[in-house]
């Protein structure tokens, strides 16, 4: 057996290793959840996109449900997610905080503002992660990624990819307390 | 009751596929002719069972059987009939069933056509195809049963993904899949030859038509997808280097290489082991694409619901099939010797360069696509690459490929004599260069070195491709369909190159905000928003804008871009308004309501984009033409005429 005919097999084995790691990784951050889920969100404080002099962080948001959504104007998948967030913002129980992830894109902040003006702004507040340090703290590996944080500041869910209407219903809304308008008396109805 | 029958049909199909694999591979190996003969029956049975399952699922969709989970998730009582049928491949389970069905169709076609091939060889081909069918059927039954019941039944369905409710997308998956799955045939021919441990002198001639057919379907499927994303996603992009687009493009590149190396193997008996390797790689990449789309390892617009258990299954299957084929290759390929030589400037050399460049291109695309995963493996966090990586690296392989094409088609087999061709080549290059420069300076304006290069390369390929056919016609010599097909495909490539050059160099694009009656200037054109109105479709409501387009005061057309809001899934989808003016698209997409009667719009002028769809169409037609060449039909007729052919095959 000449060894050069083994080269393709060797390359393939390497590829399989990469795929296995990739699959386990996606399981880690995806279905089995990130190690942060169930724990306090690491303290974060970031400048606002519209007015970098002002800052916002986990402290101000204590006491309310919020979704921290990492996105960027450079991110193709974020465009796909966007219409869902536009719909989702109407739920009064939770606010959506956008984090514009600069990730090395030079004109990111300008492009992000332009994007929001053009496609609509689903966020109650948009902050910007200039040096990506918060992204590292939160273990954000790609965009979009979203965290659902409860009033105690605990991450209750992390979505490692695009939020679809289905995921929003099943993974986010289902974890929120029932709408206050829902009459309790209904329970006896059936 | 019917859905249970459908499930049962799939179970039977699994059993039959298992038998097909066993008889087809073990029969020839152990010299049992009864087993060999039984392979075809298993193929026919498996096809009937899979077709039954597909029929039952279509029936459930057409008749609104919302007690079937897959139907309830992917259709709705308001969904029009055409999309209820297309909903079959609207999500993971059904599209997997489509995959299996198309594989069964290809397998049946192989069984019918290869009645003229040596019996044992044909059985081996069908046996390998049986392994693939078995794996996919097992995958379906184990992780993705399309017939799962929903009890109690839903009152109404959750509707088909709005993005898929479009004529272009209704046909895109079946055609693309036909191409993907078709590569399995070349793969199986390669595996069969390696199982035999020798390559029949006619092997390449048997394999070529199948490869060309699959390649032509793949070409059409990719183009349809690109066209669809252009007019429907609302931002006028036709190629984003998205992981799944790449997943379809890599097999295409390798299949293109395979078509060319098969030519060498058929004509000269060279490149044997290389051709086998390409046949394995082509299908392997289409399997890899399936894995990437369905396992959720990469984020993409095309992703199906991510499910790691599916990912693990496909990965295991991938490992067995591809790993097995490559191991077989390592074992058997050294036995295949090609002892003829060739000169540096011979046709063989140019086809070798073609192959190397295409494979390099496929490898760079693969590297870019897997970069996030490779990053994970090395412990890096985010290593995502986009068009800034893909464009230059891809061009780096493509430009030499295109430049060598014109020379290569004029090189002779075996001998490195280019002298005769030098003069016409130089003349055509000069003419193409002048035409290219004239187009840029005279027509589009501006000094655009890249545009001149692109136009020149495209023009050169067209002119030099025509040299030989015209010469033969002038001398009243016959032109085979194979040569005509090749010429047409090369011209198609050139047309696509010219289109890409035009689109990339001269697109004007602006995002504008307009109130009623206001207009904006984009390129040489004025877009005026005349008004908007609300409409209702069968399962959506829509806002449609009326936009008048004029140039220098002269009215050209009225466009009606739409935003559709689908009721059930609460998703919006855009339909761009497009008018084609001599190959230039005037494109307008409706954005958001900015309040007070103002809307955001995206206007684009894309010159030559029509050619971007025509080029690949020519390529596919060229493939179809080459397929119908006399020598493939003669081969069949000759084999039918006497048993001599088979006896000769068995002699060894």
Would you give an account of this structure?
Chain A has 190 residues and is α/β, with parallel strands linked by helices. Chain A folds into two domains: 32 residues; 144 residues, Glutaredoxin. Chain A is built from six helices and seven strands; from the N terminus they run H-E-E-H-E-H-E-H-E-H-E-E-H. Chain A has a five-stranded mixed β-sheet with strand order 5-4-3-6-7. A two-stranded antiparallel sheet of chain A has the order 1-2. By secondary structure, chain B is α+β, with helices and mostly antiparallel strands. Chain B is built from 19 helices and ten strands. The relative contact order of chain B is 0.08. The C terminus of chain B is likely disordered. Chains A and B meet through helix 1, helix 3 and helix 4 of A and helix 10, helix 11 and helix 12 of B.
Key features of this structure:
heterodimer; A: 190 residues; alpha/beta; Glutaredoxin; 2 domains; five-stranded mixed β-sheet; 18% strand; globular; B: 652 residues; alpha+beta; Four Helix Bundle (Hemerythrin (Met), subunit A); 4 domains; six-stranded antiparallel β-sheet; 10 strands
State the helix count of chain A. 6
Poorly predicted ranges of chain A: 27-33, 181-190
Mean pLDDT of chain A: 80
**Total of domains of chain B:** 4
Which range best describes the helical content of chain B: under 10%, 10-25%, 25-40%, 40-55%, 55-70% or over 70%? 55-70%
Gyration radius from CA atoms of chain B, angstroms: 26 Å
Strand portion of chain A, in percent?
A: 15-25%
Total beta-strand segments of chain A: 7
Give a count of the beta strands of chain B, DSSP E runs of length 2 or more.
10
Uncertain runs of chain B with pLDDT below 50, 5 residues or more? 642-652
* Quaternary structure annotation: heterodimer
The termini of chain A sit apart by 75 Å
Rounded radius of gyration of chain A (Å): 20 Å
Question: Strand order across the biggest sheet of chain A?
Answer: 5-4-3-6-7
Structural class of chain A: alpha/beta
CATH fold-level topology of the largest domain in chain A: Glutaredoxin
CATH superfamily (homologous) name of the largest domain in chain A: Glutaredoxin
Number of helices of chain B: 19
């Amino acid at each position: 057996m000449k060894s050069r005919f083994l080269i393709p097999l060797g390359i393939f084995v390497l590829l399989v290793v990469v795929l296995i790691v990739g699959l386990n990784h996606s399981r880690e951050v995806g279905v089995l959840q990130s190690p942060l889920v169930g724990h306090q969100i690491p303290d974060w404080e970031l400048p606002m996109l519209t007015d970098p002099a002002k800052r916002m962080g986990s402290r101000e948001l204590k006491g309310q449900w919020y979704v921290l959504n990492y996105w960027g104007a450079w991110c193709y998948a974020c465009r796909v997610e966007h219409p869902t967030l536009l719909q989702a913002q109407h739920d009064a129980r939770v606010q959506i905080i956008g984090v514009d992830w600069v990730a090395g894109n030079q004109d990111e902040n300008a492009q992000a503002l332009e994007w929001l003006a053009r496609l609509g702004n689903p966020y109650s507040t948009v902050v910007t992660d200039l040096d990506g340090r918060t992204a590292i703290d939160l273990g954000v590996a790609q965009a979009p990624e979203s965290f659902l944080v409860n009033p105690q500041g605990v991450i209750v869910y992390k979505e490692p990819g695009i939020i679809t209407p289905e995921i929003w219903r099943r993974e986010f809304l289902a974890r929120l307390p029932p709408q206050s308008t829902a009459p309790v008396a209904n329970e006896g109805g059936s | 009751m019917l859905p249970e029958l459908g499930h049962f049909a799939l179970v039977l199909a699994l059993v039959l596929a298992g038998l097909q694999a066993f008889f087809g591979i073990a029969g020839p190996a152990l010299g049992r002719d009864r087993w060999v003969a039984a392979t075809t029956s298993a193929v026919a049975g498996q096809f009937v069972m899979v077709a039954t399952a597909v029929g039952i699922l279509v029936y459930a969709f057409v008749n609104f059987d919302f007690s079937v989970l897959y139907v309830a998730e992917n259709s709705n009582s308001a969904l029009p009939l055409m999309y209820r049928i297309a909903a079959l491949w609207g999500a993971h389970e059904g599209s997997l069933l489509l995959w299996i069905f198309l594989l069964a169709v290809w397998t049946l076609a192989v069984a019918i056509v290869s009645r003229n091939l040596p019996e044992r060889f044909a059985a081996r081909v069908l046996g390998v195809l049986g392994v693939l069918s078995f794996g996919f059927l097992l995958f379906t039954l184990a992780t993705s049963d399309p017939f799962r019941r929903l009890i109690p039944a839903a009152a109404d369905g959750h509707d088909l993904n709005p993005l898929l409710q479009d004529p272009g997308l209704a046909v895109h998956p079946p055609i693309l899949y036909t191409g993907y799955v078709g590569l399995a045939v070349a793969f199986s021919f390669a595996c069969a030859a390696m199982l035999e441990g020798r390559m029949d002198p006619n092997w390449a001639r048997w394999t070529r038509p199948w490869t060309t057919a699959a390649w032509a379907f793949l070409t059409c499927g990719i183009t349809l997808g690109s066209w669809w994303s252009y007019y429907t996603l609302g931002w006028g992009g036709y190629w984003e280097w998205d992981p799944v687009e790449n997943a379809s493009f890599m097999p295409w590149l390798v299949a293109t290489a395979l078509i060319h190396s098969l030519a060498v193997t058929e004509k000269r008996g060279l490149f044997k082991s290389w051709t086998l390797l390409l046949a394995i790689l082509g299908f392997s990449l289409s399997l890899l694409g399936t894995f990437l789309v369905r396992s959720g390892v990469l984020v993409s617009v095309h992703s199906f619901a991510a499910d790691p258990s599916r990912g693990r299954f496909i990965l295991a299957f991938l490992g067995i099939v591809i790993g097995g084929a490559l191991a077989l290759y390592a074992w058997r390929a050294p036995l295949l010797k090609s002892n003829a030589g060739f000169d540096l400037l011979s046709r063989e050399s140019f086809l070798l360069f073609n192959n190397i460049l295409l494979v390099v291109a496929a490898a760079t695309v693969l590297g870019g696509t897997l970069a996030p995963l490779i990053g994970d493996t090395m412990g890096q966090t985010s290593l995502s690459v986009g068009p800034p990586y893909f464009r230059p690296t891809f061009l780096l392989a493509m430009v030499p490929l295109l430049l060598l094409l014109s020379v290569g088609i004029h090189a002779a087999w075996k001998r490195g004599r280019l002298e005769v061709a030098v003069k016409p080549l130089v003349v055509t290059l000069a003419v193409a260069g002048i035409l290219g420069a004239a187009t840029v300076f005279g027509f589009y304006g501006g000094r655009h070195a890249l545009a001149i290069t692109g136009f020149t390369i495209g023009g050169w390929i067209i002119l030099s491709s025509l040299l030989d056919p015209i010469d033969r016609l002038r001398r009243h010599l016959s032109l085979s369909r194979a040569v005509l097909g090749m010429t047409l495909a090369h011209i198609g490539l050139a047309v696509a190159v010219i289109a890409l050059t035009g689109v990339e160099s001269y697109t004007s694009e602006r995002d504008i905000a307009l109130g009623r009656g206001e207009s904006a200037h984009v390129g040489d054109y004025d877009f005026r928003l005349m008004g908007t109105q609300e409409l209702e479709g069968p399962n959506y409501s829509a806002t449609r804008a009326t936009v008048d387009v004029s140039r220098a005061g002269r009215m050209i057309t009225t466009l009606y871009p739409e935003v559709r809001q689908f009721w059930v899934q609460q998703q919006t989808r855009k339909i761009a308004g497009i008018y084609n003016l001599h190959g230039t698209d005037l494109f307008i997409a409706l954005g958001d309501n900015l309040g007070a009667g103002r809307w955001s719009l995206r206007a684009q002028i894309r010159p030559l984009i029509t050619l971007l769809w025509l080029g690949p169409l020519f390529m596919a037609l060229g493939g179809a033409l080459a397929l119908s060449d006399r020598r493939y039909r003669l081969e069949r007729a000759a084999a039918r005429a006497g048993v001599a052919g088979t006896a000769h095959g068995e002699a060894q």
